[in-house]
Design brief:
- There is one protein chain.
- With 341 residues, the protein is an alpha+beta fold.
- The chain is 22% helix and 33% strand.
- It is built from six helices and 20 strands.
- Strands 3, 4, 5, 6, 7, 8, 9, 10, 11, 12, 14, 17, 19 and 20 form a 14-stranded mixed sheet that branches. Strands 16-15-13-18 form a four-stranded antiparallel sheet, with no helix packed on it. It has a two-stranded antiparallel sheet with strand order 1-2.
- The protein is globular, with a radius of gyration of 20 Å.
């Protein structure tokens, strides 16, 4: 890695914070599409951690998490650097949509890395690939629930060709200090090698974790607790990487999760959960009623959503209008999860 961080031909001096707009392209309305980048350059040299939010435009609660971390970090106490990209997809964020609202064949930014074409999503992916990823040693990406849904796990990839990348990613996940960790097949299953972390790990050998803790549209107290969990988790990973002094909060045990099941509506309507909004990681039994979809027009019940297996809820939702396939519930399969020290 270079000794200092450089964007737009400008170096961030050690012990200082900088902000840059990275130009991507010009849109049809004549305005620039650019990515916002904060750099916190430690007083002493060390590794660089990249923090990314809102590759999907509707997953925006993590912006506040990154804002707080960016403000609280003191470069004088750091050995290394933090690169913060609070809005990695300004186009989707501006429209409050998951993907870029255009007519391309590649609207999902987190499926098109390294960015081989000239659609807006691929151009943003290329800018990240060429200018940001090469300056990082480790990555953290945030994919929280869309409005009305919330997740409750930390995720890392276990199927990189280089097993060392998976091992380092696992260590980062443990250092986050959250008890529920998913070991995902990020390359061979979902979201695939075209995701930012899939590409970074498989091609560039960069270890990473995904935070899927929290969501928007819930009570202020719950959202504040999720923000605090993520802020503390980022600081734990920085201590693990020796960017910050001190030791991370390594727990006595973690639930290592190998398989999950989504329980999403097959019809549109109004979702009425049977699970309280505090129900993340609540234990459920196979066949247990999780929620109902009711017609907003006739008020008749259209569908019942039930737990497919015994396990724990890693995805919950509050009451809100849903289309077919919208997020509702997710169940950790008890047959494929175990506590490990």
């Amino acid at each position: 890695m270079p000794d200092t961080i450089v964007f737009n031909g400008q170096e961030t001096p050690r012990g200082e914070k900088s902000f840059y707009w990275l130009y991507v392209t010009t849109k049809l309305d004549g305005s620039d599409l650019a990515l916002p980048v904060h750099v916190i350059a430690g007083k002493k040299p060390g590794p660089t951690l990249g923090l990314f939010s809102t590759l999907h435009g509707g997953e925006w609660l993590s912006i506040e998490m990154l804002r707080r971390v960016t403000i609280m970090l003191d470069p004088a106490e750091m050995c290394g650097n933090i690169i913060v990209v609070p809005v990695a997809n300004p186009v989707a964020f501006g429209q409050q949509t998951r993907v870029t609202p255009d007519e391309s064949d590649a609207p999902d930014l987190n499926r098109v890395f390294p960015g081989n074409y000239t659609w807006m999503a691929t151009l943003m992916a290329r800018k990240i690939t060429e200018e940001i990823l090469p300056q990082t040693d480790a990555l953290m990406d945030f994919h929280l629930g869309l409005w009305g849904a919330s997740f409750g796990t930390i995720v890392y990839g276990k199927d990189f060709s280089d097993s060392g990348v998976a091992d380092r990613s696992r260590s980062m996940a443990r250092a986050f200090g959250h008890p529920y960790i998913e070991r995902e097949q990020l390359i061979s299953r979902f979201p695939g090698p075209g995701s930012m972390l899939g590409y970074a790990g498989e091609v560039l050998g960069i270890p990473s974790v995904i935070s899927e803790i929290g969501g928007a549209g819930f009570s202020p107290g719950l959202e504040e607790a999720w923000i605090e969990t993520n802020v503390n988790g980022m600081l734990g990973i920085m201590r693990h990487l020796n960017i910050l002094p001190g030791e991370p909060n390594i727990l006595d045990r973690y639930m290592m999760i190998e398989k999950t099941h989504r329980v999403n509506p097959g019809v549109g309507g109004y979702l009425h959960p049977e699970i309280p909004e505090t129900g993340l990681m609540q234990e459920v039994k196979q066949g247990q009623l999780l929620g109902r979809v009711v017609s907003p027009y006739t008020f008749e019940e259209l569908e019942q959503l039930k737990a497919p297996v015994d396990g724990w809820l890693y995805l919950i939702a509050r009451p809100y209008p849903v289309n077919p396939g919208d997020w509702a519930f997710g169940v950790v399969d008890a047959q494929h999860a175990a506590w490990e020290s």
